[in-house]
Structures are given as C-alpha cells and as structure tokens.
Amino acid sequence: MTNQNNVIKFYSGEQIPVELHKVRMVQKLFLKPIEERKAAMEEAGFNTFLLSTKDVFLDMLTDSGTNAMSDNQISSMLQADDAYAGSQSFYRMEKALREVFGKHYVLPAHQGRAAENIVSQAFIKKGEVIPMNYHFTTTKEHMELNGGKVLEIYADDALQIKSDKPFKGNIDIDKLKDVFSTYGKEKVAFVRMEASTNLIGGQPFSMQNMRDVKKICEENETMMVLDASLIGENAWFIKQREEEFKNAEIKDILLEMCSYADLVYFSSRKVSSTRGGGIVTNSKDLYMKMRDLLVLYEGFLTYGGMSVREIEAMAVGLNETCDETVISQSPSFIAYAVNELDAAGVPVITPPGALGCHIDAMGFLPHVPQTDYPAGALATALFIISGIRGMERGTISSVRDENGDDIPADVELLRLAFPRRVFTLSQTKFVIDRVKWLYENRELVGGLEWVEEPPLLRFFMGRLKAKGDWPEKLMAKFKEDFGESL
Ligand SMILES: *Cc1c(COP(=O)(O)O)cnc(C)c1O
C-alpha cells in the first residue's frame, strides 16, 4: 500500500489529519484555573523546565522519550530476556537494526548523546573540523570536548522563518567543497548530516542532497555520519516532497538514506518511541574503533546501558518506523497547526517540519528586545493563558561572551513539540485557539529578567521574573474574554 497519509477530506471539503490509532491506555490531565497557572509559573521562576507536570495541561516541551508506545511495543517488554551477556532481547534488536538501517554491526548506548560521546572520542582529533547541516546541542558539546570545531554549512536562506523551500535541512554543496579546499581532507574528521534538523525547526534534507554530499565525501576519502534520531519523519518528507520517491516504500527510503552513511547513530527516545540509543555500521574497522569505548562507558556489548525491556520495545519500534501511519502522525498534526496559525498571520516557521510547531518570537513580540528574552516571555505567557508547556529556543538557551554580555541567538523560537500519537485533534485545536488569542493580545506581553542565572546550561535551572506587571494584565484580559472558561 502506498501513500498512507493521515489527512482525510470531510464532506464539507475541509481536510484534517485523523488519528489512525485508538487510545487504549490513558493518563488523566488537569486544566487548572488561570490564577493557579500563573502562580505555578511564578513558582517555576518563569522557566518552563521548572514546572511540575501536575500543573501542565498539554506538555509540548519535547518529543524526547514522550512518544506514545504501541500495544505491540508494550507487550514485547514482557518477553524480555534478562542477561548480562548474550540476551535474546539484544539479538532481536540487532536483527531489527540490520533490517531497517541495513547495517551489520550494532553498538547499543543508553541514549543519543552517549553515542555521540563514543563517535566523537573515536573519530575526532584536536584541531579537526566537522562540517554539518546544523548542530544539535549535545552533539556540539561532545565534538568540542574532543577538540573538534563544528562548521554549519546550511544554505543562506535556511534560517528564514517564512519559506516554501521543501528541504531547508540540506547541506550547501559549494560550502562543503570550500571546507575541503580550505582545511584539506586530513583536517576534516567526518561530515555529519542530521535528519529532520532539530534546531532549525525540524527541517528535512533531500535524498539528492545526501547523494551529492556522499559523492564529495568519497572524492575526499572522508567518512559520512548520519544522525538518525528523527530519520522516520525525514523519510516521510522525502516521500511527500521529492518527486522521485512519491511511490516509494518508506523501508526502501530508509535503507537508501542509511546506505550513504558509513556510520549511523541515533537516539531511540525519538526514532523508536522508547529510550536508549545506538550506533550501527557495516565497517568492521569502524566498529573495532568504538567497541572498547562502548564497554567502558555504556555497559557490555549486548545491553549498552539499556534495560532489556527498552531493548525489546526498541526492536518493535524500529519496525514501526517503517509504517507510514506512525511516522506521518506528528508531521501531519504539526502541518495542521502551522497552516492554521500561518493563515491567521501568526509568525511560524514554514514549511511545516518534524517534531514541533515553531513560533517566531521576534515576529510575535516585536516590542520585546532580545535582551528581554522574547522566546522565554512567549513561553511563559502561553503557559499562563493555556496550561500549554513549550520550550524556549532562543537567547536564554544561548550563553554570555567573555565580557558577560548575552550572545543573541540566531532565531528566537518557541517550540511546541508534538510527540507521536500523544495529542488529539481537539487538543491541537485548543493550542491553535490559545496561540491566536495570545497573538491578538500580544502587546500585553512584556519581557523577562534574571533572578538567578547559573553559569552553565542556564536554560535548564535558571530563574527569572516578569519585567513589570504584565502577567496580571494578561490574566485580567483573559478573564474578560473567556469568563469562567479555563
Ligand atoms: C535528541 C537528539 C540527540 C540526543 O539524544 P538523547 O537521547 O536525548 O541523548 C541527538 N541528536 C538529535 C538530532 C536529537 O534530536
């Protein structure tokens, strides 16, 4: 069967994404009154990471480890084979990885960043560069810890908020050639491509781009590494947006994508809706360079820091990544939200990507300067008026320079994650409605300032407060418009 799109047409002509699953296990949610939401936000120091889920209605902080598991995944966890070495659970996962990614050697790791640690230690030497479409937070840290330098070589317009370019995650081929001529192939540790490029709005690359990158890697005898954490959704976009693949099977798209990479690593928190991670390759030589590090940092070769239950669920989840109804669910709900918000004039990243709906906070709150943290302010305002928890991806997530000044982020984004098969369409409509209301009342939202600013990873643990009494004014307007409604 081809083109198992979640989007269906109503008799009225309206098109909506429909849930191609039924809910058989549920978790109760609480939508608290606005006074309690505002108090919870104050308690959390205007930082959505510090909220307790008992105060959150829709948790759109991240898709990491929060995707819904299938009935088959849950039931597989009961047959898990507990053994330090040689567990049957591991062999089932190894088989799934060989089938889905087409790679023979498998190294399990406790999560994606653990795989990054091993890849970076094994293949990056001090002074080397690593060209890539865009960095991911943990990727960059591991590469720099090992003395490497990240070079982001996306196309000039990839960070443009409003765009109709289908593959903003592509590597710019001319820039890649320049990297090799500037540094020389000896100084390039490897080229990294990240599927559904996380930090620029979940934007995919095309298969043609992979082929072009591979060709240059081969000419320069340089290894190509694929971060496959969000590969399912990228494969879905290739099928949707790249003419050559419109009738292709997802499993064939996945195999072709992986075939260009010498080494593939991933976070199972995303790709297979479980926990854990891993590295796969067809090269015995590359495998041997990583094997001993794996045992040192993660655990024995047949569990790598994961529980056997996770390993079983991962094997099943990997096969489900080939199912179009699974991998299209999150992108089709994101597309619905992005298109509705875009039509209402709300500044959102287009075209819609994977993992979440990304709101441009500088376009949303032009009166809040970057020094007052517009993305953080927007995240807190949205929580107060709706109980929806998003994640700030802007200057608060950045750092200060040696003079103690903020380094303004390239883009100020509020990310509303759509974990796979977690939210329904009425919940999605609630998100759209409350974001639209906030946009109409945007002039009421002010900035934030620090109360406690940790020197390291300040976005996780830092505490802020509102500049002025804007949260009170926002609450008053909400009550005027919505009355007793939550
Ligand atoms: C989440 C993520 C990682 C890190 O994975 P963890 O399991 O959270 O450690 C690496 N790369 C990408 C693209 C990711 O999205």
Distance between the termini: 43 Å
**Largest sheet at a glance?**
5 strands, mixed
| Rg on CA atoms, Å | 22 Å
Helical content stands at 40-55%
Question: What ligand molecules are bound, each kind once?
Answer: pyridoxal-5'-phosphate
Query: The CATH topology of the largest domain, please?
Result: Aspartate Aminotransferase, domain 2
Poorly predicted runs are: none
Helix-strand category: alpha/beta
CATH level-1 class of the largest domain: Alpha Beta
Q: What's the total number of strands?
A: 16
- Looking at this structure, what is the CATH superfamily of the largest domain? Type I PLP-dependent aspartate aminotransferase-like (Major domain)
Task: Kindly estimate the percentage of residues that lie in beta strands according to DSSP.
Answer: 5-15%
- At CATH's second level, what is the architecture of the largest domain? 3-Layer(aba) Sandwich
Total helices: the number is: 19
Mean pLDDT: 96
Keywords: Lyase, Pyridoxal phosphate
Pfam family, one: Beta_elim_lyase
Family: Belongs to the beta-eliminating lyase family.
Organism: Tangfeifania diversioriginum
